[in-house]
Amino acid sequence: MNVVENIIKKLFRPKTRLEKIPDLHTIARKQQKKKVNSIISSEELISFEQRFGVTLPDEYREYIQRVSNGGVGPLYGLLTLKESIEVTNRLGKGLPNDIFSTEFPHVKPYNPAEDPYWENLSDQVDRKEISYEDYIVQYRYVSAGTLPISSGGCGTYARLVITGPARGQIWGDDVHNDNGYVPVENDFFTWIEKRLQ
């Protein structure tokens, strides 16, 4: 390689991982109905983090502040932060303020359908020892500390771990189909780069 080619390569090499992500507008045209959303406002981001007592992982914060808050992306597209809250709120009435700050404790695959604790609690509902609503109040914490960021349909999600030992990782959520949670990628940028090519 000659000196000029080397200089050109260095000058035009993406400087950050964020700059390496393919052009979203091109991908949006290919996916047709999906669009590149506007970025999230600082006020909306700060409001979320203050309300729930968390700081979102740096890569995800950078993405929603500089690229797009939801819209075109892996699976059925990325959820906006507001949509992520709505998905989290589907179980039960009201959204506990500690739902995101409570640590997601897992570092290896976990399936609540195979956990005796949840089986016992479900049996208590069947025996009418506790109400279904009380069960849901507890069960909603199975995914605590994670933020659903993309839907795969049929009740499946890609989740960003925002608290706990796996913070920053992307996990697959197929709890709805009794398949549990599995780690998918170690960080948001790797996850999105691989899926937007």
Summarize the structure.
It comes from Colwellia psychrerythraea (Vibrio psychroerythus). InterPro entries: Knr4/Smi1-like_dom, Knr4/Smi1-like_sf. Strand 1 (146-153) and strand 2 (156-161) form a beta hairpin.
Question: What is the alpha-carbon Rg in Å?
Answer: 19 Å
In helices, the fraction of residues equals 25-40%
Second rung of CATH, namely the architecture: 3-Layer(aba) Sandwich
CATH third-level topology: SMI1/KNR4-like
% residues in beta strands: 5-15%
Which regions are unreliable across 5 or more consecutive residues at pLDDT < 50? Answer: 6-13
User: What is the number of domains?
Assistant: 1
What's the CATH H-level homologous superfamily? SMI1/KNR4-like
Order of H and E elements: HHHHHHHHEEEEH
Q: Can you tell me the overall shape?
A: globular
Question: What is the makeup of the main sheet?
Answer: 4 strands, antiparallel
Going across the biggest sheet, name each strand in turn: 1-2-3-4
Average pLDDT across residues?
A: 83
Q: Return the structural class.
A: alpha+beta
Give the beta-strand count.
4
Total helix count? 9
So what's the oligomer here?
single chain
Straight-line N-to-C gap: 27 Å
Determine and state the CATH class. Alpha Beta
